[in-house]
Amino acid sequence: MDKKIAHAEEHLDLLIERHPALAPCRGSILQAYLMLEECYQHDGKLLIAGNGGSAADAEHVAGELMKRFQRPRPVPPAFAEKLIAVDRARGAELAQNLERSLMAIPLVAHEALSTAYINDVDGLGVFAQQLYGFGRPGDVFLGISTSGKSKNVIMAAIVARALGIGIIALTGAAGGELAQMADVAIRVPEAETYRIQELHLPVYHCLCLMLEDRFFGEGAAL
């Protein structure tokens, strides 16, 4: 097996063991991981959007990537020295407590910007506007929609495509237009909203675990 994906396969094995219904999604989850790995290898970022429960999932994903999930993520020694050089006492505390991140921005979290755009311009373009502002070629957009039909998420995907940003869709079995637009579509095999959401969580937890192992596991470069 390719060493590059051996650790990812181990996480996938555990995911399918715990959630056998996700076996048909194994290949798409691996593809999504490889897209995200490539993004982070080149100092890119993940931009995430969804509505309702999927908005909560967007923030959840960002929380797992921006700080430790399972593994310690201490700052590099050279940066710790710089912090201490700026302020010996507080710098030492920061060097002890700061954790390395994989940059992830939940587009659902910026209330002032979102409400200003909705009020002044257009409600359906609220994620598209933020993606246009934050996004750069080489980034990845994760659109979460149980139906695959969320208009504001699809609008953001259109902007992502125009900017050269990779698109991952996390949907239910139907997939909708969002899955058709995506480079990788993870379509969990459920049709009811709450059941789809119940399977979305282990999928993105698995992705976060694979990425954390890749970038912060034993032998990973600081």
Describe it for me?
The longest helix has 24 residues, at about 195-215. The relative contact order is 0.19. The protein has a five-stranded parallel sheet, sandwiched between helices. The chain has a single domain, classed as Glucose-6-phosphate isomerase like protein, domain 1 (Rossmann fold). By secondary structure, it is α/β, with parallel strands linked by helices. The model has no long low-confidence stretch (mean pLDDT about 95). The chain starts with a helix and ends in a 6-residue tail after the last helix. The chain has helices at about 5-20, 25-40, 55-65, 75-85, 90-95, 110-120, 125-135, 150-165, 175-180, 195-215; strands spanning about 45-50, 105, 140-145, 165-170, 185.
Q: Regarding quaternary structure, how should these chains be classified?
A: single chain
Strand order in the sheet with the most strands: 2-1-3-4-5
CATH class: Alpha Beta
Helix content: 55-70%
Helix/strand layout:
Layout: H1 3-18, H2 26-41, E1 46-49, H3 53-66, H4 77-86, H5 88-97, E2 104-106, H6 111-120, H7 126-134, E3 140-144, H8 151-163, E4 166-171, H9 176-181, E5 184-187, H10 193-216
Parallel strand pairs: 1-2, 1-3, 3-4, 4-5
